C-alpha cells in the first residue's frame, strides 16, 4: 500500500487522511501471542507444518489488500519462567518453531501483491549466506521481500550454536551495524546494473569486469568475495527492525525503513517514536520516511456485543501460564516467583539477556495500567501478548486504530491474531471495508509493485537516496579501511 493521502470529507472541508499500512502478524509456531488457542476448534495454528495453511492464509491476505505478512521467528525457547523450558514446551508457548522462509515461495506463487517480511538474526550466520538467501527470495517473489533485522538475545539460542553466553546488548547492535554494511556492499556494490548482458554469439552471459569483489576486513566480519546472486528487483530487501532501547533506536534511525513497536499506551510509545524520528533527521534522513508499525490485536464482530461475547469465548481457551512464560522470557522477570498482586518494576528483571524495549513496555505505568502485577500481566499476556487488544464492531475497532495513528504518530499496524485464520478473516471481511469507507485504506492495489514500492510509491524499488544503503551502490562504492584493534581505521 502506498502512503498516498486519501481525501475524506469533513463537513464542507476536505481533510487529508493518511492511508494506514496493515501487516498480518504471524509466526511459524503453535502459540504465537495468544497461547492456548490451539485447543479452540476454530484455530488452525497446529496445521502450520502444512503448506495448505500458508497458501490459504496468503490468498486471504491478498484478497484483503494487506500490505505484508510479517513473520516473527525465534532461535530458542523461553526458559526464564521457573528456570525451565518445561512450561514453554508444555503450553506450546512459541514451541515448536519451524523455519519461516520455507513457505514463502509457495505463498508468492498464489499471490501478486502481498509482501513478506521475514525475521532473521545478525548473530547466527555469516552475512554472505543471508545475502544469498534474501536475494534469492527477492528474485522469486518479484521483489516482495522484507527483512526484520534482529540481533538475538536468548541464552538457549546462543548455546544451540556453541556459545555459552549471548553477546552484550549494545555490542550486538555494533555487530549488527557492521553486518548490515557488509550486506549493502554485497547487495548494492558488487554487481553493476548491466553486469548481466547475455550475448549468445560470444557465449557470454555476464561480464566479470562489472562484478566487484568485496574486500571487507572489520571487527566482526571478514570476507573477500563477489556476491553470488545477480541483482534482484530491490537489491536490498525492505528493512524492518524492532527495538527502542538507546542502542536499538540509533540502529533503527540509521538502517530501518519500517520499525516494529509495542506498547499498551500511545502516551508511552509516542516519545520513543519522536526520538527515533529526531535521530533519523540528524542522520540526514527524512524522518517521515521511517514507517512505524504497532502491535495490535483486533477482536471484531458485527456489533460490540457480539465482539465481547467472542472475547469471552476466546478466554476459555487462553493459557495463562503460557502467557507468563512468554512475558518472563521477554522481560527477564521470572513471574513464578512473585505474589499475584505485587507491583513489578524494571529492578525485578534479574536476567541480563532480554528484550529491553519489552521490559520497558511491561514496567512503564500509564493511566490505562497504573500498576503492573503478575495478575495484570496474566490477564493481558494470554490474549494478544505484546500490545493492545481492541474488542468491538468494525466502527469501534477502526476508531481505536485511528486514535493510535493520531496519538502515537504511527503509520500502520502489525495485526496479531487470537485464532487463525479467524482473526484475519474478520479483518478482511469486516474491518477493512470500514477503513475503506473512512478513506483510510485503498480501494484497489496496483499490481506488480515491490515491497518497498508498496510503502513509498511506484518507482522506489531500491533504497532511498537518503538511506545509508545508497552510499554502497556500485557507481559510488568505496571500500572501508581494514579494522585495527586499537580502534583506528
From TrEMBL:
One Pfam family recorded for the sequence: Bac_luciferase
InterPro entries: Diverse_substr_monoxygenases, Luciferase-like_dom, Luciferase-like_sf, NTA_MOA
Oxidoreductase among keywords: yes
Claim: Transmembrane helix is one of the keywords in the record: no
GO MF entries: monooxygenase activity; oxidoreductase activity, acting on paired donors, with incorporation or reduction of molecular oxygen
Membership in a protein family: Belongs to the NtaA/SnaA/DszA monooxygenase family.
UniProt xrefs under NCBIfam families: FMN_nitrolo (TIGR03860)
Protein name: Nitrilotriacetate monooxygenase component A
Amino acid at each position: 500500500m502506498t502512503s498516498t493521502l486519501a481525501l475524506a470529507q469533513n463537513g464542507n472541508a476536505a481533510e487529508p487522511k493518511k492511508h494506514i499500512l496493515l501487516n498480518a502478524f504471524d509466526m511459524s509456531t503453535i502459540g504465537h501471542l495468544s497461547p492456548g488457542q490451539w485447543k479452540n476448534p476454530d484455530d488452525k495454528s497446529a496445521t502450520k507444518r502444512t503448506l495448505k495453511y500458508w497458501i490459504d492464509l496468503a490468498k486471504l491476505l491478498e484478497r484483503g489488500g494487506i500490505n505484508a505478512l510479517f513473520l516473527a521467528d525465534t532461535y530458542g525457547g523461553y526458559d526464564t519462567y521457573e528456570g525451565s523450558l518445561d512450561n514453554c514446551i508444555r503450553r506450546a508457548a512459541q514451541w515448536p518453531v519451524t523455519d519461516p522462509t520455507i513457505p514463502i515461495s509457495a505463498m508468492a506463487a498464489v499471490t501478486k501483491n502481498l509482501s513478506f517480511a521475514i525475521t532473521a538474526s545478525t548473530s547466527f550466520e555469516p552475512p554472505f549466506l543471508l545475502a544469498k538467501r534474501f536475494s534469492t527470495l527477492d528474485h522469486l517473489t518479484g521483489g516482495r521481500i522484507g527483512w526484520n533485522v534482529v540481533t538475538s538475545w536468548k541464552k538457549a539460542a546462543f548455546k544451540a550454536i556453541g556459545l555459552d553466553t549471548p553477546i552484550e546488548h549494545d555490542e550486538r547492535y555494533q555487530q549488527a551495524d557492521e553486518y548490515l554494511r557488509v550486506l549493502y556492499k554485497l547487495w548494492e556494490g558488487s554487481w553493476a546494473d548491466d553486469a548481466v548482458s547475455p550475448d549468445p554469439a560470444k557465449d557470454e552471459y555476464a561480464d566479470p569486469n562489472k562484478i566487484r569483489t568485496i574486500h571487507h576486513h572489520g571487527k566482526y566480519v571478514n570476507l573477500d568475495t563477489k556476491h553470488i546472486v545477480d541483482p534482484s528487483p530491490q537489491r536490498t530487501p525492505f528493512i524492518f527492525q524492532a527495538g527502542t532501547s538507546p542502542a536499538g533506536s540509533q540502529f533503527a534511525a540509521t538502517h530501518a525503513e519500517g520499525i516494529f513497536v509495542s506498547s499498551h499506551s500511545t502516551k508511552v510509545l509516542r516519545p520513543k517514536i519522536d526520538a527515533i524520528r529526531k535521530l533519523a533527521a540528524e542522520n540526514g534522513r527524512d524522518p517521515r520516511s521511517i514507517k512505524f508499525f504497532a502491535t495490535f490485536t483486533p477482536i471484531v464482530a458485527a456489533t460490540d456485543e457480539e465482539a465481547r461475547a467472542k472475547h469471552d469465548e476466546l478466554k476459555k481457551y487462553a493459557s495463562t501460564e503460557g502467557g507468563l512464560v512468554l512475558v518472563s522470557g521477554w522481560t527477564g522477570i521470572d513471574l513464578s516467583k512473585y505474589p499475584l498482586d505485587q507491583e513489578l518494576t524494571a529492578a525485578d528483571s534479574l536476567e541480563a539477556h532480554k528484550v529491553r524495549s519489552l521490559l520497558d513496555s511491561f514496567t512503564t505505568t500509564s493511566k490505562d495500567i497504573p500498576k503492573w502485577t503478575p495478575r495484570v500481566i496474566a490477564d493481558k499476556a494470554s490474549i494478544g501478548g505484546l500490545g493492545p487488544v481492541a474488542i468491538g464492531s468494525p466502527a469501534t475497532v477502526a476508531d481505536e486504530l485511528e486514535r493510535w495513528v493520531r496519538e502515537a504518530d504511527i503509520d500502520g499496524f502489525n495485526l496479531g491474531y487470537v485464532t487463525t485464520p479467524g482473526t484475519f478473516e474478520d479483518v478482511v471481511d469486516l474491518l477493512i471495508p470500514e477503513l475503506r469507507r473512512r478513506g483510510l485504506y485503498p480501494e484497489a492495489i496496483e499490481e506488480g509493485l515491490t515491497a518497498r514500492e508498496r510503502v513509498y510509491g511506484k518507482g522506489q524499488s531500491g533504497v532511498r537516496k537518503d538511506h545509508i544503503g545508497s552510499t554502497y551502490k556500485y557507481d559510488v562504492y568505496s571500500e572501508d579501511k581494514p579494522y585495527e584493534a586499537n580502534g583506528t581505521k
